[in-house]
Amino acid sequence: MKISTLAACAALLGCAGSAQATNIEFWYGNTGPVETAIKAQCDAFNASQSEHKVNCVGQGSYEVSMQKAIAAYRAKNHPVLIQFFDAGTLDLMLSDAVEPVQDLMPDVKWDQYIAGARAYYETSKGKLFAQPYNSSTLLFYTNKTELEKAGITQTPTTWEEIIEAARKLKAAGHACPFVTDGDTWRVLEQFSARHGLPIATKHNGYDGLDAEYVINTTFAAKHLANLVEWRKEGLVRLAADTKAGNYTAAFNAGECAMMEQSSGSYAAAAKAFDGKYELTVNMAPMYKGYERHNTFVGGASIYVMKGHDKPEIEAAKAFLDFLRKPEQQMFFTAATGYVPVTTDVLDTIAKSPDAKSPKYATAKVGVESMNQPATADTRGIRLGFYVQFREVFMEETQKAFAGQQTMQVALDNTKKRGDQLLRRFEQTYKGKTLP
Asked: Signal sequence: where (predicted)?
């Protein structure tokens, strides 16, 4: 459904918000097609009833939104609803600035949320702190047209097969067989999750603030070292190696033949490929010999911030109810590639006339990826100052890709600096019990 059509349909359900409506703000951090979809949902909600009005305010990025929300809360000028990204989960849980959504809305069937989305945002006792919203996971994208030109007729499913395909592509004259940006979320977090590897002790921090990083000792270290060697061989490219200077743009333009990227990138890729190439999307690749586990949920969820009156909270709850509707989740998936977050939506898609439409291509595969067998190390990441850790990881590993140090040294340095961040966080919240 086109965005304009969605708003028009919603307008038929009720009149525009009246002057008596309770006004609330919802801060989000997305741009591009995702922001367009968020604004459409806000307009549709406001058009569907007259009791509440939500003003959706873009902040430009997750990090900026996080910083502004902290400052606004201290100044007691904060929004009722805020979209917070995955890496800031623990910081927000311990901030005492939000009300667990499951406490505010006990009658919602929260168990309908897919396990992969729930685990990241729930307490150790299974209570959801936030309502999953723009949920993504890591998927494997291929330009089937370019692969077939190189004689590759089967989509690779393992890293071994990817490298074999990359060598064929290179031999056929392809300058960019596989592309990545080396981002922490993709090459460390999602890789570790689906291979059943811990990122830190204490089950990635879920069992205590005294966790320590182990990334320099798991199979993830070998994979990252492999990426360095494959890049030297011309099989793997980084964003800086591409003509576009942006790895997603390079894939979408046909410059690169394979990439691993968020399901949220599907809409842009499909639009770019339309009429030029055939796009395939599958679960992210495994190394042979490893059992597949669930990938982490990415993207963000919506929190209700404390310090607001009852009418504002009721407006927030109404908006959250609206976003949870199957038709709204289907719209968001079709418009962005983000995956549905409740189990009933897949059934609704399957029964719809557009069940096999490309616009729902990420729904089934994304949910399937997040619903693979889980372990205590694949629930998510519950580590303090994790946003800063991601920056450290990128800084050190980029030096390895540049040949300034080995990948092992990069990971040893990352572990040391990461543990220092964890000890600072532990001291900051000394005596606090993890939710």
From this structure: 1-21
CB atoms within 10 A of CB 361: 22
**Tokens (6 digits) for 350:** 């399957």
At 389 the three-state DSSP class reads helix
Class at the top of the CATH hierarchy for domain 149-294+388-428: alpha beta
Helix H segments across 195-304?
201-204, 219-232, 247-252, 266-273
pLDDT tens-place string over residues 198-213: 999 999 999 999 999 9
Q: What DSSP state is assigned to residue 14?
A: S
Entry field: residues in the chain:
435
Q: Which of 194, 197, 241, 236 is nearest to 215 (CA)?
A: 197
Residue 344's alpha-carbon distances to 129, 137, 187, 302, in angstroms, are 21, 19, 31, 20
Q: Is the pTM for the entire model greater than 0.85?
A: yes
Domain 3-136+297-370, CATH: 3.40.190.10
> Side chain identity at 17, as an amino acid letter?
G
The reported pLDDT for the residue numbered 92 is 87
User: In this predicted structure, what is the pLDDT of residue 358?
Assistant: 84
Residues 6+ apart with CB under 8 A from 396: 405, 410, 411, 413, 414, 417
206-227 burial, b if ≥16 CB within 10 A, otherwise e? beebebebbbbebebbebbbbb
In angstroms, the CA 10 to CA 48 distance is: 5
Express each pLDDT in 43-54 by its tens digit.
999 999 999 999
CA dist 36 to 30, 188, 236, 262, 340, Å? 9, 30, 33, 18, 18
The domains of the chain are located at: 3-136+297-370, 149-294+388-428
Share of the chain above pLDDT 90, in %: 77
State the Cα angle at 115 between 110 and 117, rounded to 5°: 80
Looking at per-residue pLDDT, the higher value among 12 and 340 belongs to: 340
* pLDDT higher than threshold 50 for residue 2: no
Q: How far is CA 379 from CA 119, 353, 362, in A?
A: 5, 34, 21
Look-up: residue for tokens 């590639």?
A: 337
